[in-house]
Write a structure and sequence with these properties.
- The chain is of the alpha+beta class and 752 residues long.
- It has 16 helices and 38 strands.
- The protein binds one DNA strand of 12 nucleotides through strand 9, strand 10, strand 11, strand 13 and strand 18.
- Belongs to the telombin family.
- It comes from Pygocentrus nattereri (Red-bellied piranha).
- GO terms for molecular function: G-rich strand telomeric DNA binding; telomerase inhibitor activity.
Length: 752
DNA sequence: GGTTAGGGTTCG
């Protein structure tokens, strides 16, 4: 029987099972009408959609392996050549009574990525959502709802974290949901009551006479802000998920309904200026500093830009115990709330970094009076996040573009500008002298409210900070300290900032791309058919009929007994790709060509040396045109410097070169980041050239300094040391600026 | 192949 099935991948997992090498379970949503002989006699359109809409498919062996690599949740899949068996899990998963086995010789399939299928406008695989008042027990369902109660994920006694929430919809039914996942990032990102949540493949279950929803195999979730006019942006950690116009309409309808029900009537959180003693409240704030008090208690020093009308307690800790900037001046202004976080919340608090924006739920404002303090003295407020999760007690970090942070940001800016007007200087609020900090801190202790300063000086100068206008007025050469934002930077494609620099002749050139290098290898192949023969080398050659050429390896006689990791290997008759493969197993590979049977290096436009993933280039102008015999005696360990020397090559260095347009209130300055770029990024240029991870790190830092699509107001301030100098060009003297002795902060290196 | 939790103030 020949049956084709066109299906939509709902979930899958890769498992090893008893003696089978691999088997693959896939739960899919059928939307193509299939042969009535195979399945139920019902018209699929009439059958209960939620009951038989999904079917298990099991893959075996290499098909399972290949399929798992190419498929994503939400993809459309065409299946053929399967066998149909009775599903042993029908009673438990309530899916189709049959399952499909992709095991025979005829089993084959085609995966169409979900991006393609959704762009084709197909709506046939649309999910079915059950209104909350129509849920029946023991089903796997998809639902939408508005959150009326939630707890941040907390650890269970089992293996998972648990999120507890209650949702409702236009039917007014209220349904509790329990979400289990050992990965915190998979839990729904709920920030406030009124958020809209979508749950896929959750199990209905009666508990204490009420309907509840529980995560089941292949579940997923997406959440949305519940505000009427905010953009419908899915919050999810999922790599692939389906979201279309129909979903958007559902979210908008729920928002509309929620607003009519006043589900979002109250402000999500209370500003510090409105907090009264003994209150339990939610707080939106920025973390300034934190300190570990003991194993069950952590201090968070936060602010929200408003001033509490009651005096706040100040918890002092040793400066070296404090992570983040000291808050002395804010403390004096009654702007910092000292929050003691207890027990189960310490785990989350530990992961927080100063500068992050936070939301704390069910924070307790505790009036505290020192023993013996007279009763006419106003009591001070301290804040406790008690242990436990009652009333949703907990904390989480929130993204910096959360709309509820607008007040905090505008207050912060207002406060900063007031200070500037009143004091004529920002020194008091914006700067704490280094001697007040203690010896432990290496970086500059500059203190700001918002945005956070993302870099620090290492120059040791005690220069006063200057405006950019002042810097431009001064006569070079000179050092300056400035505080500025990044208006723009070049090159925007960061791989282009990597250059090759010859320390001998100071030439700077671009790093060639693979296409160009491959051409240089091809040219060498065309010109050298005969293996070269050198008296100092042991040569072995492999003739490949398939490749129509010989690949030849040469190793210096002196090194032939050493292991391949320490040998210097000369390779002839290879392409760039082959060189890359071979250099993965050899530490030092030098591609060579033959010129009248004599060994010659390739054109120095290509790397002369491959060391695992690193490539090294020589300077065309400063290297010897040819070598007779490499100088190998006396070399203990071969590195790029020794190899270059032995071959008479002038090694070029990898350097980073960026041009920043810096801006402060007084003007803009273009400054290069070059000689101190490695220090700035905490990464060596050679490592950046060879490692995707390091390139990502640089990109992350740049994205934090100039977040894509951000306004100037949203960008962080950088404290920078600039050197001003002159260069002669075309008989004209030009003033240049370079960023020097400046490091970005460690917390920028990790992607937020 | 499917535990855990199943909202309802700590006690510092």
């Amino acid at each position: 029987m020949s049956v084709l099935l066109f299906v939509h991948v709902k979930a899958f997992s890769l498992l090893s099972f008893f003696s089978l090498p691999l088997w693959f379970s896939l739960i899919i949503l059928c939307y193509f009408s299939f042969s009535p002989l195979c399945f139920s006699e019902e018209d699929p359109k009439k059958s209960s959609a939620s009951q038989h809409a999904s079917i298990n498919v099991i893959f075996f062996g290499t098909l399972a392996k290949d399929f798992s690599r190419s498929v994503s949740q939400g993809d459309m899949v065409l299946l053929a050549g399967f066998t149909i068996s009775k599903s042993p899990t029908e009673q438990t998963d309530r899916l189709h009574p049959c399952h499909l086995e992709m095991s025979g010789p005829d089993a084959c399939l085609c995966v169409c990525s979900s991006t393609v299928s959704s762009s084709s406008g197909s709506s046939a695989h649309r999910n079915i959502y059950v209104p909350l008042n129509e849920l029946k027990p023991r089903r796997i369902v998809n639902v939408y709802g508005v959150v009326t109660f939630f707890k941040q994920p907390f650890p269970t006694k089992g293996t998972d974290y648990c999120s507890t929430l209650k949702i409702t919809d236009q039917s007014n039914a209220k349904v509790g949901c329990t979400i289990f996942s050992e990965r915190l990032e998979d839990h729904p990102k709920i920030f406030r009551i009124g958020d809209v949540i979508r749950l896929h493949r959750v199990k209905t279950q009666m508990f204490n006479g009420s309907m509840t929803l529980l995560t089941s195999l292949g579940w997923s979730t997406v959440t949305f802000d519940g505000m009427l006019d905010s953009p419908v942006e899915p919050r999810t950690s999922s790599r692939t998920f389906h979201f279309d116009e129909a979903d958007k309409r559902v979210v908008e309808a729920l928002r509309q309904w929620a607003s009519s029900q006043s589900l979002l009537a109250s402000e999500p959180t209370v500003p510090l200026s409105s907090v009264q003693p003994k209150m339990y409240f939610d707080l939106t704030c920025q973390l300034l500093a934190k300190a570990c008090m003991d194993s069950r208690c952590m201090l968070l020093k936060v602010w929200d830009g408003t001033k509490c009308e009651h005096p706040l307690i100040n918890v002092t800790v040793a400066p070296d115990a404090l992570e983040g900037e000291p808050t002395n001046s804010q403390d004096r202004e009654n702007l910092t709330a000292n929050i003691l976080v207890y027990d189960n919340h310490v785990e989350v608090a530990r992961t927080l970094k100063p500068g992050m924006f936070l939301r704390l739920y069910n924070l307790h404002a505790v009036p505290q009076r020192a023993p013996g303090q007279p009763h006419d003295v106003p009591c001070h407020l301290g804040f406790h996040l008690h242990g436990g999760t009652s009333y949703g007690r907990g904390l989480c970090s929130i993204p910096s573009d959360n709309p509820d942070l607008l007040t905090l940001k505008s207050q912060a800016e207002k406060l900063a500008s007031e200070k500037e007007v009143n004091d004529g200087t920002l020194l008091e609020v914006w700067y704490t002298p280094p001697e007040a900090i203690g010896k432990g801190l290496k970086r500059n202790p500059r203190l700001t409210f918002f945005p956070f300063v993302y870099s620090g000086l290492t120059c040791g100068h005690t220069l006063q900070q200057r405006s950019l206008a002042h810097v431009k007025r001064c006569t070079p050469p000179a050092f300056h300290h400035v505080c500025a934002q990044v208006k723009s930077y070049k090159p925007q494609n960061l791989y282009q900032c990597l250059k090759l620099f010859c320390p001998q002749c100071t030439t700077i050139k671009e790093v060639p791309d693979d296409e160009f290098i491959a051409q240089v290898f091809q040219e060498a192949l065309r010109g050298s058919c005969q293996p070269c023969s050198e008296h100092w080398a042991v040569t072995s050659s492999v003739d490949s009929i398939q490749l129509d050429r010989a690949i030849t390896m040469h190793v210096s006689c002196d090194m032939v007994l050493e292991n391949t990791q320490s040998q210097l290997l000369f390779l002839q008759g290879v392409t760039l790709d082959e060189t890359c493969v071979i250099s993965a197993a050899h530490k030092n590979v030098v591609p060579v060509r033959s010129e009248e049977r004599r060994m010659r290096l390739l054109d120095l436009s290509a790397p002369f040396l491959f060391c695992e993933r690193k490539r090294y280039y020589g300077c065309k102008q400063c290297s010897q045109s040819s070598f007779v015999e490499p100088e190998v005696s006396g070399v203990e360990v071969w590195d790029e410097h020794n190899v270059a020397k032995a071959l008479g090559v002038q090694l070029m260095q990898y350097v980073l070169l960026l041009k920043f347009e810096l801006e402060d209130e007084t003007g803009t300055v273009e400054a290069l980041l070059w000689e101190d770029a490695e220090r700035f990024f905490h990464a060596s240029s050679a490592d950046i050239a060879a490692s995707q991870e390091m390139q990502d790190k640089v990109q992350t830092i740049m994205d934090r300094l100039q977040p894509p699509g951000s306004s100037m107001a949203e960008r962080p301030w950088l404290e920078l040391c600039l050197i001003a100098y002159t260069v002669e060009e075309d008989g004209r003297t030009q003033v240049c600026y370079q960023i020097t002795n400046t490091e970005t902060r460690e917390d920028l290196w990790a992607r937020p």
